[in-house]
């Protein structure tokens, strides 16, 4: 079998894949924030994860695949108030819908782990970062100082960070440096009943620390592959690397793989633009979810894929043709077996 090569975002080149442990590949994928239904743009990334896993399995690797469920953050708290249900009820509702989407797309289910079930691990990491001087406290939370981490921004490239002011503003709290990011947010009345009384203060975790805690809990402080959509390169994955490597003193991940966006004519598909479609809506239009899976296979995983009903219709027809060809080949094989059987020839 040929050597497996993967494009590594960290080095920006294809590399021969060499697992840390030859018996099992450890892979972590950023999963959904369960404040709403996943749209098909999100699902393209989860299909990419699944295809990568199948490739690893084809190459005879055992794969330990972990995916997080972000069930506490600003969006989930706000949405639970909007729907007038508890955070737990909200997250369970949308997590169940997400799992149903995975099943309908024939995606091999990863090990799912929820942020709210891993708070102790996050607190432990934050305490260590405070002790080592990588983090500091303010009146509204605990922040990671990016100046303390020498290689900050390598994954995203510094020029991209300079041009990402809008992403930075979304996390504005009281901090020493505007680019520092929150590890722990101290309680405010807007949080309602969502908080944890911990050694580092009453509050809740920042988004980035959640993935570091969950990935290291299941896969160790140094593992093989981390995946996600391209918009997670900065700031999320950049911050994951900084806090994880500052905590452990080890390289966090060997191979970073990122998938391209699913776009509409007007641009990227996103809830903020109001141009989203869900898998359920595609089904209501008469499409089998596997037609969407086939459509995602028609473009390179790192390239944008423009979605339209016309493109989906074409993918649907191509999938049907392929099914018919496979069915005919199976029938031909049965016929050939019959005539190759000496008993069948004697009976004839």
Q: How are the secondary structure elements laid out?
A:
Layout lengths: L4 E4 L4 E4 L7 E6 L10 H19 L3 E8 L4 H9 L4 H18 L6 E4 L4 H14 L2 E3 L3 E4 L13 H5 L2 H5 L11 E6 L9 E3 L2 E5 L1 H13 L3 E7 L3 H16 L4 E7 L2 E3 L2 E2 L10 H6 L4 H8 L8 E2 L2 H32 L1 H6 L1
Parallel strand pairs: 3-4, 3-11, 4-5, 11-12, 13-15
Antiparallel strand pairs: 1-2, 6-7, 7-8, 8-10, 9-10, 13-14
Protein described:
This protein is of the alpha/beta class and 348 residues long. It folds into two domains: 19-259, Rossmann fold; 273-348, no CATH class. The chain has twelve helices and 15 strands. The chain has a five-stranded parallel β-sheet, with helices on both faces. Strands 6-7-8-10-9 form a five-stranded antiparallel β-sheet. Strand 1 and strand 2 form a beta hairpin. Helix 4 packs across helix 8. Residues 164-172 have low confidence and may be disordered.
């Amino acid at each position: 079998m040929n050597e497996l090569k993967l494009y590594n975002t960290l080095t920006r080149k294809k590399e021969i894949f060499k697992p840390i442990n030859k018996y099992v590949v450890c892979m972590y994928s950023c999963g959904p924030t369960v404040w709403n239904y996943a749209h098909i743009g999100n699902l393209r990334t989860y299909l990419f994860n699944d295809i990568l896993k199948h490739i690893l399995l084809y190459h005879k690797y055992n794969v330990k695949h972990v995916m997080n469920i972000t069930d506490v953050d600003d969006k989930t708290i706000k949405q639970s108030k909007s729907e007038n249900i508890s955070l737990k009820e909200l997250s369970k509702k949308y997590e169940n819908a997400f799992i149903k989407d995975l099943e309908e797309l024939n995606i091999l289910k990863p090990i799912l782990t929820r942020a709210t079930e891993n708070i102790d691990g996050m607190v432990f990491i934050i305490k260590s970062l405070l002790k080592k001087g990588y983090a500091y406290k303010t009146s509204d939370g605990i922040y990671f100082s990016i100046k303390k981490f020498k290689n900050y921004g390598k994954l995203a490239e510094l020029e991209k960070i300079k041009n990402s002011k809008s992403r930075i503003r979304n996390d504005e709290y009281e901090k020493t440096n505007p680019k520092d990011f929150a590890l722990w947010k101290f309680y405010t009345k807007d949080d309602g009943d969502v908080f944890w009384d911990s050694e580092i203060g009453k509050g809740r975790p920042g988004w980035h620390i959640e993935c570091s805690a969950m990935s290291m809990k299941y896969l160790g402080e140094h593992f093989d592959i981390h995946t996600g959509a391209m918009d997670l390169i900065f700031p999320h994955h950049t911050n994951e690397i900084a806090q994880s490597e500052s905590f452990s003193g080890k390289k966090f991940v060997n191979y970073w793989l990122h998938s391209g966006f699913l776009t509409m004519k007007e641009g990227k598909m996103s809830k903020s633009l109001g141009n989203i479609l869900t898998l359920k809506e595609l089904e209501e239009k008469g499409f089998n979810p596997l037609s969407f899976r086939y459509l995602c296979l028609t473009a390179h995983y790192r390239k944008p894929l423009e979605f339209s009903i016309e493109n989906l219709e074409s993918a649907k027809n191509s999938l049907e043709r392929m099914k018919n060809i496979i069915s005919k080949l199976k029938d031909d094989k049965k016929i050939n077996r019959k005539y190759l059987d000496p008993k069948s020839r004697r009976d004839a």
